[in-house]
């Protein structure tokens, strides 16, 4: 099972490290990652494998949102199917 994680906000040191460390601690594998910085704004999108996480989807989503609050960025986690439906033309 896959999930999409997005991170958006003002660029600062440690955003990628904090998110990736959390994912490693919860047994979530990063399958693909893309990040850009435009005029000081950080944008990252990750596709992750949540087939065997150590926490429930709801807990991980909440934890990532809290990490985002600590960093001053917005972090959202969505199931791949929901993400695809929302972005279908």
| Topology order in helix (H) and strand (E) letters | EHEEHEH
Quaternary class:
single chain
What average pLDDT do the residues reach?
93
Helix content: 25-40%
What is the alpha-carbon Rg in Å? 13 Å
| Tally of strands | 4
Q: Approximately what portion of the residues adopt beta-strand conformation?
A: 35-45%
Helix count, per DSSP?
3
- The chain-level structural class is alpha+beta
Instruction: Give the overall silhouette.
Output: globular
Strand order of the largest sheet: 2-3-1-4
Q: What is the first-to-last residue Cα distance?
A: 23 Å
Description:
The chain is of the alpha+beta class and 89 residues long. It is 37% helix and 39% strand. It is built from three helices and four strands. The chain has a four-stranded antiparallel beta sheet with strand order 2-3-1-4. β2 and β3 (41-49) form a beta hairpin. α1 runs antiparallel to α2. The radius of gyration is 13 Å and the shape is globular. The model has no long low-confidence stretch (mean pLDDT 93).
